[in-house]
Amino acid sequence: MDYTTKELIAAFIARDLHDGENIVVGANLPVPRAGVLLAHLHHGPNMTIGLSATQTSLLKEPVLQPFKYNRDFRAARWAESYMLHHETFDSPKLISDVFFVGGIQIDRFGNSNLIGVGRDYRRLRFRGPGAIGTTTMTVYTKRYYLYLNSHDPRVLVERCDFVTAFGWGAGGADARTRLGLPGGGPKYCITPLCVFDFEEEDKRMRLKSVHPGVTVEQVLARTGFKPVVPAKVGETEPPTAEEIAILRQRVDVEGVLRS
Amino acid sequence: MTLERRSRIVDEVEAATRVKDGMCLSIGGHIMSSHAMALVRRIIRQGTRNLTVVGAASAGLEVDLLIGAGCVRKVVAPYVGAEALAPIGPFYKAAAERGEIETWECDEGMYYTALRAAALRLPFLPTLAGLGTSLPEVNPDLKVFADPLTGRPLVAVPPLQPDVALIHAAYADPYGNVQFVGSGMGDRAHHRAATVTIVTVERVVPNEEIRRNPIATALWNVDMVVRAPYGSHPFQSPGFYLHDEAHLEEYLAAARAAVGGDRGLFDKYLERYIFGPANHAEYLQTVGFPRILSLHEV
User: Fold this and answer.
1) Distance of CA B293 to CAs B31, B168, B243, B284, Å?
2) How high is the pLDDT of residue A29?
3) In chain B, which residue's Cα lies nearest the Cα of A168?
4) B161 φ, ψ to 5°?
5) Can you list the domains of chain B with their CATH numbers?
């Protein structure tokens, strides 16, 4: 079975999402979007999907037409309810159970930065897009996934210049409860080369699996900090024929994940 | 004496004059959707300066355009950009890096907390969001404090009160009852926090039509209603038209060149679409009906 790295990651994400979960899907992260929709169609008939400021079920839709922008109203045609954006943060019930967080920097404890790069906030070398909803969402969601489109030592850094979403702070399994943050924190950091999880006690990033064809050495050479490397690192499990069929025939008919 | 209910309909030219130098201005919608552009263009045309712009929770290129046109002193927005088309607004990025604008750093949750504090006339509202992050450092208006009941840390978010809120919606009657197609995103929060709310609508409808479905009335008692069909162009308006991607690309090319030092294209953009047309109708004429009518949803 041939598959692309993006399809592999979508399948990895899908397997970690459970039936009954309430999950919002953005537009600008096509791989996590595909992962969520794959989980929904593959094993999540009772999932609620947040899409273009609506909540819905897409189970009976033969093909999920792609849409390009977050609030594309064409994607609101399935709405069972509307998401009033200003109320989204009023209750964890209105917030997604899980969330995907990108970063222009992510550090070894899973803290992430969307503000910018530089020492002086008033004179950033690179101004980032801004925190969007990540600061609040990551306080509350049951768990979240750090997701990167590129695996680069300038992105995976020892320490972020700024932090917009608190992961595991300076480390320690109690880092979040000490601050009184109710959410479960980052579970995995997913990149085009590998998946990291977090060591149970000190919450340092740990290499969980490398994608087929990638070596541990390649990962370490492209990572700006020293992750925990277990004696034996497995491979990320490839998608099944059934997962690929759902992805290609219903979720990603335009082939964004194959490009 | 016969009592008459007063119509709140004004045209976009008059409505925009309510926005004055140095004011705090909020603009509703969400990234590629539902911005009161007929008013944004007028504000640029009338030369308003030193605005504090509260963009939508996720703001689009309308904020970028105001920065490029020199109207902005300070930006409050958890995001300014156009998603895949431009991950970050070119003028916003350059002006922030060069220290030409002030930025009030927050995320969407904190942003709505600040609007709610304004609506409630509170000095602050507490949140868990921002604990352990850089936000209280880079935004000194946010303060970490100890909860008086438990002693645990919380972040105090001060009020954000727009002097004027600009909102774009589907329908309103002449008396300021406003209905959206779709959710209305975060626009209710803007109206509740602002001193004055001005709403541009695709269609002004008779009061009877509002009464047919009152649960759809999302905002009432807004101060001004502006008739502005296609008033969100080049952004989409749910139920009416999609964003104009070609126009946004034209804008982005001009903005990127301007940021790189060559303002020629951007000056032409401003002249063609903002300073040239005398009003919204002439703007639509400039864009042209073939283009406007091609932006259908289905």
Assistant:
1) 22, 19, 12, 11
2) 87
3) B132
4) -115, 105
5) 9-105+161-293 (3.40.1080.10), 123-158 (no CATH)
Measure the CA–CA gap between A37 and B288, rounded to whole angstroms.
Answer: 39
Per-residue pLDDT at A26 exceeds 90: no
Q: Does B271 touch chain A (CB under 8 A)?
A: no
Q: Which of B33, B79, B131 sits opposite A129 (nearest CB)?
A: B79
- In CATH terms, the superfamily for domain A5-258 is Glutaconate Coenzyme A-transferase (3.40.1080.10)
Average pLDDT over residues B219-246: 97
Whether A133 sits inside 8 A of B135 (CB atoms) is no
pLDDT at position B243 is 96
Of A69, A84, A165, Cβ closest to residue B188: A84
Judged by a CB distance cut-off of 8 A, whether residue B115 touches chain A is yes
**Range 114-143 of A in CB contact (< 8 A) with B:** 115-116, 121-137, 139
C-alpha B138/C-alpha A162 separation (Å) is: 9
Contact assessment for residue A114 and residue A134, using Cβ atoms and an 8 Å cutoff: yes
Q: What is the pLDDT of residues A100-110, one digit of tens each?
A: 999 999 999 99
CA closest to A111 among chain B residues: B133
Q: What pLDDT is attached to residue A114?
A: 97
Kindly tell me if the per-residue pLDDT of A27 is higher than 70: no
**Chain A from 27 to 66: CB within 8 A of any B CB:** 27-28, 53-54
Q: What is the predicted pLDDT for the residue at A144?
A: 97
If you average pLDDT over residues B226-235, what whole number do you get?
Answer: 98
pLDDT at A246 over 90: yes
Fill in the DSSP letter of residue B31.
T
Where do the domains of chain A lie?
5-258
What pLDDT was estimated at residue A68?
80
A182-236: pLDDT as tens digits: 999 999 999 999 999 999 999 999 999 999 999 999 999 999 999 999 999 999 9
8 Å CB contact of A86 and B242:
no
Range A24-51 burial, b when 16+ CB lie within 10 A, else e: bbbbbbbbbbbbbbbbbbbebeebbbbb
User: For B186, which of A82, A86, A181 is closest by C-beta distance?
Assistant: A86
ipTM score of complex = 0.95
Looking at the complex, report in whole angstroms how far the Cα of residue B102 sits from the nearest Cα belonging to chain A: 8
Nearest to B133 among A84, A116, A164 (CB): A164
Q: What percent of chain A lies above the pLDDT cut of 70?
A: 100
Tokens at residue B66, please?
A: 């105001």
Task: Answer whether A164 sits within 8 Å of B134, measured CB to CB.
Answer: yes
Dist CA B244 CA B226 (whole Å): 22
Q: Are strands B9-10 and B224-227 parallel, antiparallel or unpaired?
A: parallel
Indicate the residue of A68, A129, A179 with minimum beta-carbon distance to B81: A129
